[in-house]
Amino acid sequence: MKEPNREPGRGVIELVEEAVHLLRGAPLHFHAAYAVGTLPFILGFLYFWADMSRGAFAREHAALGAAGMALFFLWMKCWQAVFAAALRAQVTGRAAEPWTVRRAGRLALTQLALQPSGLFAVPLALAAILPFAWVYGFYQNLTAAGGEPVDVGGACKTAATQAGLRTGQCFLLLGVLFLFAFLVWINTVLAMAMLPGLLRMLFGVDTAFTQAGAHSVFNTTYLACSFALTYIFVDPLIKTVFVLRCFYAQSVRSGDDLKAELARLRAPFPGSPALPATRP
Amino acid sequence: MLPLAQQHCLNHPAREAAAQCPQCRHFFCRECITEHDGRILCAVCLRQLSQAAGARRHPLRVLGRAGLALGGLLTAALFFYWVAQLLLLIPAAWHDGTLWKSFWSTVE
């Protein structure tokens, strides 16, 4: 009987499962690095949104607010690259490289120079649909390769090469992840809508939301809050999936997955695996 | 030219060749070659490449890097400025949800 034509490497669900295991087993300081970068941006963005949508003098300080948001955005991207580098070190089973001034500078320069273009490129690619997986994958790969010892051109080349690998898998992967994000968003909106009512029912605490009634959910800042929370919940998973995707793509040449597997087998106790075992 | 299996190392004629350097096209044994940036190179070519890379470093490179970083910052600022302009364009009735409140009261 003819074998079904399967592409080599990890499948989509397998990759997501492995990312979930990796994320769950990640030490607290990995998550702290992510939070240090992302929380200021999210809080700043919500303030910026509320200010621009309601502030009486918003038009006068729009440029200053935008400059502040740009700084928050680049700060977030740098820390997300630090988070990805830490995950990458855990996946390969090697000790994490120390953060020298040179390494941190290279990471910051790569993120500063390349990530802002994604703010324009990703929505444009989404509108065109077909190049979306490649473009989105490219910017995620830039984050995933943030800690690598390469310059801006090298990082760009690596991210582009890896974005071009298994584009079909990338489309499917993004479909699964965005469906998951949509479900998380629905849950977040429901939780946000129910929480004020529960607070009043259980503790007698009246909030602005209970006073405003059911119509408060149509407030644009409210919706922005729900999107921001969904981003915080889902984005670490997306970053981890792309770290794994880059790792397996590079392992085809470097054999790092086999080395990590060997390191896991040599580990003195089962509590210190380099890779979460997802295969039987 | 003889195939690889019949070639000998340029530096160690007694040894069989293990690879051909893509830069200088000479054959070398396992000891005389190394991998660099995904390519197998001989020690001489690797030294020449690293020297060339070192020579390319220019004082203006720092300025170039600063320009890249500044360009990124300006691009991000421009994006958020447009977001701000878009938010300012949206009527207040949309932002505070009163549009939907009046819509629902009309329906009821």
Core attributes:
heterodimer; A: 280 residues; mainly alpha; 10 helices; 0% strand; globular; disordered N terminus; B: 108 residues; 2 domains; two-stranded antiparallel sheet; two-stranded antiparallel ribbon; 4 helices; 4 strands
Model description:
The complex is a heterodimer of chains A (280) and B (108). With 280 residues, chain A is an all-alpha fold. Chain A has one domain (19-266). Chain A has ten helices and no strands. Chain A has helices at residues 12-25, 28-54, 62-92, 101-128, 132-144, 152-163, 167-203, 208-212, 220-254, 256-266. Mean pLDDT of chain A is 85; it is low at 1-6. With 108 residues, chain B is mainly alpha-helical. Chain B folds into two domains: 4-55, no CATH class; 60-107. Helices cover 53% and strands 11% of the residues of chain B. Chain B has four helices and four strands. Chain B has helices at 43-55, 60-89, 92-95, 98-107, and strands at 19-20, 27-28, 33-36, 39-42. The longest helix of chain B is centred in the C-terminal third of the chain and has 30 residues, at 60-89. Chain B is elongated, with a radius of gyration of 32 Å. Chain B starts with 18 loop residues before the first strand and ends with a helix. The mean pLDDT of chain B is 82. The A-B interface holds A 48-49, 52-54, 58-59, 62-63, 65-67, 69-71, 73-74, 108-109, 111-117, 119-120, 152, 215-222, 253 and B 38, 65, 68-69, 71-81, 83-85, 87-88, 90, 92, 94-101, 104.
